[in-house]
Amino acid sequence: MSPVSRGRKKKRSTTRPRSARRVVPSLDGVHAELLSAFRPVARATDPLEVEVVASDMLGTWWKRLPPGEDPDAVFGEGAIGHAARAGTREAMALLRALAVLGVTPGQRDAASSAAAALAAEGVADPPWAATIGQVEVGACWRLSDVFGDQASLLSVFGYGRREHGQVALVDFNHLGGWVAVGSRTCS
């Protein structure tokens, strides 16, 4: 070996080894996570609790896909199909929730049909299945400041004797208006 060649170093490979590559979860894995999230909801008695979990789940779909992908088709309809194949109590809970809260009419119809098929196979409905989405609207109040810069809104609603309150602070001066929302169980 010549003195010149001894000083040369090997070029590094520009491709990363397989172990260093980013692992993207399969859609089945994501759908299985959704079913796991519905495990405690399958035994819940308060429809509002179910609505909060389902809404949270629906709101996270858009974060999981590259721009340009339709999350309602990829995750929503995929989750419904996965739940229909799973045939578990969690699957029934997910399907009954999406039959009411699904983002698109197609999702709601598909979830309703899949839930009916599971019911025909003997999978039990969750305790809240008959009441979800049938909220009774109660009193509503608005309190504004003297200058008209802000308004506080309180809406009371409930399922039977259990009431919940939704409070929204509307600020008309920032960024063309913004809303901060909070909720609390009243009884």
Could you characterize the architecture of this molecule?
This protein has 187 residues and is an alpha+beta fold. The protein has six helices and four strands. The chain has helices at 3-6, 27-37, 47-60, 71-86, 89-101, 105-120, and strands at residues 136-144, 150-159, 162-171, 178-185. A four-stranded antiparallel beta sheet has the order 1-2-3-4, with no helix packed on it. A hairpin with a 6-residue loop joins strand 3 and strand 4 (178-185). It is flat. 20% of the residues are buried. Residues 19-24 have low confidence and may be disordered.
Q: Which range best describes the helical content: under 10%, 10-25%, 25-40%, 40-55%, 55-70% or over 70%?
A: 25-40%
- Low-confidence segments, given as residue ranges, are 19-24
Major sheet characteristics? 4 strands, antiparallel
Number of helices: 6
Specify the overall morphology. flat
Rounded Rg = 25 Å
Give the helix/strand class: alpha+beta
- The tally of beta strands, per DSSP, is 4
Order of helices and strands: HHHHHHEEEE
Number of domains: 2
Distance between the termini: 86 Å
Strand order of the largest sheet: 1-2-3-4
Q: Hey, roughly how much beta strand do the residues contain?
A: 15-25%
What is the mean pLDDT? 80
